[in-house]
């Protein structure tokens, strides 16, 4: 008898494990199909994502214009969109104009830097002479000529990327305008279209997801501001020119994980090298490495974990996983996606853990009046 009971328990455990495994495989298959469909429709999804991120950043201004100043929705959305374009144009001016004014100095610095590298290469331990350097340059030119077709293909790919970027930006701006104009009416409309309990659950989850997305954008902007302030202060102390454009560039590129920090740091080190020399360039490199390590391992996990309700370790793991799966875009979207998954999971857990409401008490019905001369019956 005990042997048969053990056999029954074993079969029951195996059956339960098989059912769970089959359900897990179905969920993974559905997730794969969903990701495949998103990849096929990425040309539409990516502008939508950018528009949502920009809308969460500009929505407080639009809400102020609509609620406090009584602007009509279309007017408020138009004003905020134009203001956003003006700010972006101002940022470009802040970056481009100082660089253009000091282009001569930078060009001289580049020439001096190349000459310093040549002098360094001609001494020990390399001992490269002019003939060796000329031969190296000839080899490089020959290699470039042999790869001319590849370079043309890369150039065409780059131009295609630029064109796609312009189209994506224009589409994202139009979507941002419509989100700012009609956003508050979307959830009530969606609630009227859904049946039964979905009319409550889906709008609630989307409202929480919107708040979470706004927290992500604000936290990312705060982290970028910290990077810009600390790196800009370090560049100013060292005496590197173009401090303000470099600080603005650092703030903007902070929204692009990994590559943005590398690009901004490379530009700062390059300018320090061609204008100040090797020593100051190494000091700037050390400053950037320290700030980026603090930002990536301390500031960003702490700020985003508070704003998004995620543990700092979850933020780090999400960025690592997203970057490994989808590169730069995956690293950019990893944290908000993890936060949205947490929102959905938390809501489902709340609904499953809620106790059923107690039965409503029956209404008090007064007893029938008794005949004359009799006491009313209480039964």
TrEMBL record:
Region (Disordered): 352-379
Gene Ontology CC, one term: plasma membrane
Subcellular location: Cell membrane
Membrane topology: Multi-pass membrane protein
Ranges annotated as spanning the membrane: 12-38, 44-62, 74-100, 162-180, 215-238, 244-271, 278-294, 314-347
Positions with biased composition (Acidic residues): 361-379
Keywords: Cell membrane, Membrane, Transmembrane, Transmembrane helix, Transport
InterPro entries: AI-2E-like
Superkingdom classification of source: Bacteria
Pfam family, one: AI-2E_transport
Family assignment from sequence similarity: Belongs to the autoinducer-2 exporter (AI-2E) (TC 2.A.86) family.
Classification via PANTHER family: PERMEASE PERM-RELATED, TRANSMEMBRANE PROTEIN
Protein name in UniProt: Putative PurR-regulated permease PerM
Organism: Paractinoplanes brasiliensis
């Amino acid at each position: 008898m005990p042997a048969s009971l053990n056999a029954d328990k074993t079969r029951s455990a195996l059956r339960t494990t098989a059912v769970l495994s089959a359900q897990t495989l179905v969920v993974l298959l559905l997730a794969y199909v969903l990701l495949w469909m998103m990849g096929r429709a990425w040309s539409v999804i990516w502008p939508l994502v950018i528009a949502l991120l920009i809308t969460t950043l500009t929505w407080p201004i639009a809400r102020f214009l609509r609620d406090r100043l009584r602007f009509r929705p279309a007017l408020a959305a138009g004003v905020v969109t134009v203001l956003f374009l003006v700010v972006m144009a101002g940022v470009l001016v802040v970056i481009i104009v100082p660089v253009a004014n000091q282009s001569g100095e930078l060009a001289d610095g580049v020439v001096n830097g190349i000459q310093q590298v040549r002098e360094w290469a001609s001494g020990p331990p390399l001992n490269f002479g002019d003939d060796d350097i000329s031969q190296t340059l000839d080899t490089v030119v020959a290699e470039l000529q042999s790869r001319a077709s590849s370079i043309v293909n890369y150039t065409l790919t780059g131009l295609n990327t630029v064109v796609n970027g312009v189209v994506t930006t224009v589409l994202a701006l139009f979507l941002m305008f419509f989100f700012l104009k009609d956003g508050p009416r979307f959830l009530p409309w969606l609630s009227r279209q859904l049946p039964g309990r979905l009319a409550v659950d889906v709008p609630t989850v989307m409202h929480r997801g919107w708040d979470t997305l706004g927290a992500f954008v604000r936290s990312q902007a705060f982290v970028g501001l910290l990077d810009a302030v600390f790196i800009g202060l370090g560049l100013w102390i060292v005496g590197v020119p173009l401090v303000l454009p470099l600080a603005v560039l650092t703030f903007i590129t902070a929204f692009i994980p990994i590559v943005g920090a590398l690009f901004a740091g490379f530009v700062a080190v390059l300018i320090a090298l061609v204008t100040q020399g090797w020593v100051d360039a190494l000091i700037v490199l050390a400053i950037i490495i320290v700030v980026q390590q603090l930002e990536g391992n301390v500031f960003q996990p702490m700020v985003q974990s508070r704003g998004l309700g995620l543990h700092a370790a979850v933020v780090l793991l999400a960025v690592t996983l997203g970057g490994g799966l989808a590169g730069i875009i995956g690293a950019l979207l990893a944290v908000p996606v993890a936060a949205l998954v947490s929102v959905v999971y938390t809501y489902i857990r709340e609904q499953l853990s809620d106790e059923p409401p107690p039965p409503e008490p029956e209404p008090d019905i007064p007893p029938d009046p008794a005949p004359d001369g009799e006491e009313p019956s209480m039964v």
